[in-house]
Amino acid sequence: MEEIILKYRKTIIKTLALGLVVAVMAGPIGLFGVVFAQEQNNEDTVEVTATVEAWAELIIDETELTLDPDLIQADGTANVGIASTTFQVGTSNVDGWNLQMQGANNGLLHAEEGNDALIGTVTEREGLVAGDAGYGVNLEAVLGTVEGDYLHEEENENTVGPVTDTATTIMSHNEAHDTEEAGTFHVRAAADSTQEQGDYEDSITLTATTDI
User: Fold this and answer.
1) Are 135 and 104 in contact (CB under 8 A)?
2) How many C-alpha atoms does 207 have within 13 Å on its Cβ side?
3) Under 8 Å between Cβ of 96 and 111
4) What residue ranges in the chain does DSSP mark as E strands?
5) Can you give the pTM of this predicted structure?
């Protein structure tokens, strides 16, 4: 009984050993197959593109201006009326920015609908005189450069450049910077003593652009 049992166990051992041999021999074959599959892989690439656009920002601190004093007062006194606002500009453009200006009426137009009375803009850089009709702007720069016709001068503060209905570059700066105060924008006008009474108005559009 015991001998039979031993033979049975030997048979089991031999069978297990054979199984192990088969398993070990199969291993390298399996590894070889994996390496062969990797050698057949194809490479490819993914191209990645990102864009950063240049920006420009303009902030006008006062967007509604009333010229003061009245161009012609009730007692007939003539004045040069003045109104001003500071403005801020910023840009990421390495070449900086341009400030463009465009009026709506080529002057100050009578506010009454259908009334075409006009205080016309100056046609070139000109000094305004009380009692002599004219309208224009000038600028003081904190940074950047004001175009010659629009440069504010302390000794000739009423000397202005024209405000036309064509976009005109009035100031520029040649580097990128955060949004900060860039200058002061002055609007000035005078009227003839016989100018029709009433309110007069214009709409001036200012644009900061990276189109240098």
Assistant:
1) no
2) 13
3) no
4) 56-60, 81-91, 97-102, 107-110, 118-120, 126-127, 134-141, 145-146, 159-160, 168-173, 177-190, 200-201, 205-209
5) 0.79
CA distance 115 to 53: 45
Do residues 146 and 70 touch, judged by C-beta distance below 8 A? no
Question: What string of pLDDT tens digits covers the 212 residues of the chain?
Answer: 323 232 333 333 333 333 433 333 444 444 444 454 556 788 999 999 999 999 999 999 999 999 999 999 999 999 999 999 999 999 999 999 999 999 999 999 999 999 999 999 999 999 999 999 999 999 999 999 999 999 999 999 999 999 999 999 999 999 999 999 999 999 999 999 999 999 999 999 999 999 98
Contact at 8 Å (CB) between 109 and 202? yes
Using CA atoms of 97, 60, 184, 58 in order, give the dihedral in degrees to the nearest 10. Answer: -10
As given in the structure block, the two tokens for residue 46 are 């993914």
Total residues belonging to the chain: 212
